TrEMBL record:
Protein keywords: Coiled coil, Disulfide bond, Endoplasmic reticulum, Signal
Matches recorded under InterPro entries: Gtb1-like, Man6P_isomerase_rcpt-bd_dom_sf, MRH_dom, PRKCSH, PRKCSH_N
Protein's UniProt keywords contain Signal: yes
MRH domain segment(s): 433-547
Coiled-coil residue spans: 168-266, 390-417
Matching Pfam families: PRKCSH-like, PRKCSH_1
Lineage of source species: Eukaryota, Fungi, Dikarya, Ascomycota, Pezizomycotina
Protein name per its UniProtKB record: Glucosidase 2 subunit beta
The UniProt record lists the keyword Coiled coil: yes
Residues making up the signal peptide according to the UniProt record: 1-19
Amino acid sequence: MRRLEILLLSGIAARSILAAEAPRPRGVGPEFAKFYKSSDTFTCISSPSIRLPVARLNDDFCDCPDGSDEPGTSACAHLSSLSPFTLGSTPTGHVNTTLALPGYYCKNKGHQPSYVPFTNVNDGVCDYQLCCDGSDEWAKVGGVKCEDKCKEIGKEWKKKDEQRQKSQSNAAKRRKELVAEAAKLRQEVEVKVQTLQTVIQGQGLKVKGLEAALAEAERQERGRVVKKRGAGGKLSMLVQLAKDRIEELRESLVEVRNQRDTGKARIAELEAILTTFKEEYNPNFNDEGVKRAVRSWEDYAARDKPAVGDDAKDRDLDEIAKPDSETGAIKWSEWDEPEEGDVDVLYKIEAYLPVPARDWIDQKLRDLRSLLIENGVLAPSTEAGSSKEVEDARNALNAAKDSLSNSQKQLGEYSEDLGKDYGADDVFRALKGQCVSKNSGEYTYELCWLGETKQKSKKNSQQTSMGKFVSIDKVMVDDEVPPDGKGLGSGERVALRYENGQHCWNGPNRSTFVVLACTETDDLWKITEEEKCVYRMEVGTPAVCGMVEKKGDNPKDEL
Ligand code: MAN
């Protein structure tokens, strides 16, 4: 039984090996082997209605419209999209004349299998780049013999491929590191945002508290009645007015008394003249005018004399007319001396009270005072807003407001940063601020990631801005990749736009378009000025590895 099993298994294995190794017609790749299995007829791949005897395969005559009967010759090369001869060929009717096969299949044992354009088959040239086994020149046209070089070419390629793969894996590793670093940086910003949100909440509360404290300090300041008689309260003003008025009246009194005394003296003198006149005139002299004057005087002298102040009254007036500073009737200086404010007095009252009652009373009294001031009953302090308490409260509030607005500004910047495009996986966040440069001609060119591009003169310290980072973009490229790997390859690439650099004389503001390709380390390898002051940089960086397929560095990609 065991023996039978082994036999059966070995039978199946043998059949599969036979099937796998069933000879395919020359030039057929393994993926097309299924079309060439029949040992008697061949069906054209794209035109199944056309069937041919197997003998007409590779007979150097193109039978099938899609060229599938000539996989190993150049007979159908004129159909090949890879052949220049097909240019201008027109499809006949509904028949599909598009070449069914990608080219002549070179096994390239020891290296990578590959397809060669049909035009290259038996053209007398060894196409070692694509067909290292030389099988494309199987007919040895003109005596050309292409020996199999796959072993050495394959070895060399393998070496390079290993390097390339190592470099790619290093680049991928580096990108991973960058992404991890970017995530860390992002997290840091997120933490900052969270912290700032909390800080701002606290600062907001603090501002509110300090606003209330300032209002209270100002209210208390208004509530502080100043009883001293200096410039200030209504009472002090009244005192000053009264003092001035009394002084004015006193001065007037003195002056009027002087005028009265002068008048009195003149009347006495006049009366003495008239008395002498009456006594000395001659009544026998018949002068009517003189007689009338004497009679009038006698009438005047007979009338009751009005009281023009007696000595007692005059003494009183003398006293009244003396300045208060002499008499001490009103001690103005007493009124000028500072007194305890009512608040202080009340504090003294409170000192006799238990602490809880003291605080309660204090608050009530302050409230009452403010109410009285607001209603014009008490005079507010003219020093409101200038006391140390108010100044301190205001300074504390302003400082808290400044801190709050700084935090809000920072929060805005961090939040904006979190919303910014830093490329796939946020990767450019990790590179932000780092720069790469390259000497070229008379300048050193510099690219700072997500910052600025610059042209620095080698002769002097002059620097020219070639643009500031604006956005991350994409661009299609189709370039060769040289052996040193410093090339863009072909396909879609990540690009960075830098705009609005230094103005170019008689031209635009300088700008730079930076096209990126995957490399192990950051490397600015090419700068061109495509138009006046419009620059293009080609830069390698691990940041873009795996973001787009880099073609062009593998022989198979050529097809
Ligand atoms: C400088 C450089 C050049 C640019 C000219 C334009 O020489 O920035 O790249 O073309 O100015 O005047």
